[in-house]
Beta-glucosidase
Amino acid sequence: MKKQFLSLLLLGLIAVACQKPGTNTTSQNDSGINTKVEALLSKMTLIEKIGQLNQYSSRWELTGPAPEGVDSMSLYNMVKEGKVGSMLNVTGANATRKIQAWAVDSSRLGIPLILAYDVIHGYETMFPIPLAEAASWEPELAKKSSRVAATEASAVGLHWTFAPMVDIARDARWGRFMEGSGEDPYLGAKMAYARVKGFQGDDLSDETTMAACAKHFAAYGFIESGRDYNTVQIGDPTLHNIVFPPFKACVDAGVATFMNAFNTVNETPATASSYLQRDILKGEWGFEGFVVSDWNSIGEMVPHGVAVDKKEAAYKAITAGSDMDMEGNAYINNLEELVNEGKVDEALIDDAVRRILTIKFKLGLFDDPYKYCNPEREKVLRCDEHLAAAKEAAKRSIVLLKNENDLLPLKKDGLKIAVIGELAGSKDVPLGSWRAKAITNSAVSLLEGIKNVGGSSSIRFAQGPAYTEGLRSFTTELNINTTDRSGMSEARLLASKSDVVVIALGEDCWQSGEGRSQTDISMKGFQQELLEEVYKVNKNVVVVLMNGRPIEINWMAENVPAIVECWHLGSEAGNGIAEVLFGDYNPAGKLPVSFPRAVGQQPLYYNHLHTGRATNGEGNVFWSHYTDQSKEPLYPFGYGLSYTTFDYSNLKLSTNELTEGGKIVVEATITNTGNVAGEEIVQLYIRDLVGSISRPVKELKGFEKIKLEPKESKVVSFEITTKDLEFYGASKEWKAEPGDFNLWVGPNSAEGMAASFTLKKMN
Ligand code: BGC
């Protein structure tokens, strides 16, 4: 009886999984591949099938806690026995060739491994961290960076990257903020789509492309109190309207794989969620690729308290649609028994195997398992062309936050420039976290960049007190120096004898990334003191911020004349920043995230709901605010300055009434009112005034980056259709609701020219 029920359940699950065929993946001959997959599947034993669902990391590079019971020897044997379908963290054309040979030459069916790595923002040539690159608001730029990253990673034998990370993040305490595109689902979706296209190209079998992976499905960015791996409680509308859009964009772009998440979503671990993986992803969205678990996220169902042991965890995960077990040992040790006991139907395993084999076929691994392992191709690593692309990306990701009295750009001659701060001299910090195979200390430091670009200026450096001490690495906790002030007076002296001070402050790159949550997001160590000491003797201070999350910079914003947000910009960081500081490039980035005034404001985001008491109309205390701090961000989402100024005028709507199937053309004139050419990111926001559920105060619905010569004007136009007004509301489906809307066209989420329109009732 139980078995019958399970079979029915299973048929239902598979039917859902197959409901809506392929919006994705590549241009391969799918029916040819299907035939080959079926032929291969029919030859496989149960344990060989389960082997395809099993993934291990190499033992020499671990990106999570090492699991028990698997050493290099047992791993070698398992690959040879066909009990491993994929490996991560094996790199290098020779190493990947060797490991591939174990599978291809020794296992009974010779099924090639799919080799994966976290290629998040570059492989050896480092691009800006994804959060930074989102500040360019240029999906094409992100596509190019991912293309370069794939070209390098595929040259060392890799087939699959665990990127893009498309989690919307709203809480700066979370260290993984740096890996995504910030707080907005619209911008996030555009960047996500572009990155998938960049990694995968048009044809997965091309030897310079690799399979992408949309992660972490879902809602990992909503972990409570910003503490990594923590619980997520989230309502359905937020899940659908805010969290899902970038994931859906990845499916639309044909992404080959998804990764689920460590966290629970409303008490159910994402890895055990049929709703996420079967109903939404494989059902509603018709995703045909496969889902890999996060590192032991199947095994972690045991500590989550939803499975007594890994066997039950394996049952829950496979039933819910997790196809591959990363580093969990849960599938390989338990699925066979679960099938033999009649608890898991083999058809469910077949479905997962099919998905995995299909991607392997699409990558061309069955035609030539070694085609990616060609030492000759490794010369593309960090080649000049890639470094040039990294420099372009670096400067386009910079956001000018403040520039009083036009302190910037700096003159290239005759200036005595003091460059101050450990981060300014660092050739490592700009490489960022999740840096794949970046060579330690291989970035152009800010100091080097200033020397390269600064012409005949006199450039002198003082480190100030050390920022960190001891080992700095991906796997260890960072030690910030809080005891040794030496270097302070030298820095102050240099500042006092200089015309201008460029001081780099913010975060070491190992302060952000996985496992790097913080309760305090202000500048750490002696940085604030160093800034104040320098400012006492020289008011011409330019702060170059390096950081992987929004940080608290109230004093700086109040006092120093110039602040340039430079994140962790990658291999060419110093050159890119210097081009901005000296005016060779006019900065045009805008914040993809709201900058808080205090950690207590977190989570802080522009597209919040209105609350019943949003203003203090009556002047009393009973309204939604803080009594000790403004509730507004220090710098809003979408904010960023330029060396020129832009005027917005002439907002025009083609009509104020939208009907089903119709559109509104919104036009605005933007004029460069300054003396230098510059780029501006023109942003369109709307507000749905009354809905079946409360709607955000603003939602980004369009943007365009334009370039204007001095005094030049351009008309920017956007189209709004009913589709743009759809949301997941009380009816539990995406639809637009008739009623009144406000609209803004402006330079950021807090300013803009306003208009309104009505969506007419549909018949
Ligand atoms: C991270 C993933 C990553 C995986 C493999 C996990 O700890 O959450 O994002 O892809 O490790 O390195």
Observations:
- The first helix runs from residue 2 to 18.
- The domain at 646-759 is CATH 2.60.40.10 (Immunoglobulin-like).
- The CA atoms of residues 431 and 570 lie 4 Å apart.
